[in-house]
Amino acid sequence: MNNTTYDLDNFALPLPISQAARKIAQQFANQQPTPEKAQQVRLNTLAVSVVNDYLQMMEIPTAIGASDSWNPIMQLSTNVADLEIPSIGRLECRPVSLHDQVCLVPPETWEERVGYVVVQIDESLQEAKLLGFSRNVTTETLPLSQLQPLEALIDRLEQLRTSPLKTLVNLSQWFANQCDAGWQTVESLWDLVESQPAYAFRSAVTPEATFLNQSEAITRRAKLIDLGITIIDQPVMLIVEINPEANQQTNICLQLHSTGNQLYLPTKVKLIVLDESGAVFLEAEARSADNYIQLQFRGEIQERFSVQVSFDDMSIIENFII
C-alpha cells in the first residue's frame, strides 16, 4: 500500500478547483432529489471541470457543454462524468476521495469512452489531483495502482486525433433494410459476380447453402474484398450474417468465399475479428482445400469490432458497430 501511494504521488498532478466550477457543481447538485444523488453529481461535475481545465492548459479543445455530465436528464438517471472532446470522443473523469485505493466505474460508462481519468478531490473542494489514466475498464472497481501517468492520456488523445476517422458499418440498421455503400444482398452480389467470368463462383457449395439457420429474422449482406494484384482476378466475398437474440445480444456469423477461377480460397488468406482496442479476438486461416472459412460470435448493442481480411502483406479492414 505504501508503494502504491508513493507511485501515485510521483505522477499525480495537483490542480486548484475554480470558484466557477464549484458554483456550477452546486447548481447541478441542487437539482437532485436526494442528498446522496446531489453529492454524486457534485463530485462528478468537479472531476469533469478539473480535467477540462487541464486539457485546455494542454491546448486540447473540449466541449464540456455537449457532455452527458452536463445534461440534467443524464445527471438524474445515470452516474456519468464524461467530457466531450471534439473529433476524438468522450473521456470519463471519475472522482475519488483522499484515502480511496480503488475507483468506482459504473457499467454505463464502460462503452463509448476513449479512456478514464481518476481525479482525487479533497474534502474542502478547493483542490484536486489528477491521479492517472486508464485506457480501458471492464469492472466496477479500478485499482488506483493500475493507473498510468497522465502522459499516457496525452499520447492516447494525440493518437486518436491523428488517426483517420473510421467509417463504421451500423449492423442494427440492416434489420431496417438500411445498408452502407458497397454492401448488397448475397443473392444480388452473387448474380453480379456470376455474370462476370473472371469473378464466377467455382465452389461446389454456394454461400446460401453453408448457413444452417434460415430464420426470417436473419439478415445477410455481402461485399467483395479486393486484396490487390497478389491474387489478381480472384477477389473474395465477405458475407456478414446477423441474427437478433435475447438480452440485446446479436449473433454474428462471418464467412469468406472465393469468387475467382480457383476452386478454393487462396491458401493462408486470413479472416480476423479485432475487438475495439485492436486486439485479435477470433481468427481463421484458409488451408489448401477450403471453399470458405467462417467465424461466429455474439455481441451487444453498441459494441464495436473490426473484420480484417489479409493475404501476405495485404489487408483490408471493415469496421462495425452493432
TrEMBL record:
Superkingdom as given in the UniProt entry: Bacteria
InterPro entries membership: DUF1822 (IPR014951)
Protein name: DUF1822 family protein
Species, as recorded: Halotia branconii CENA392
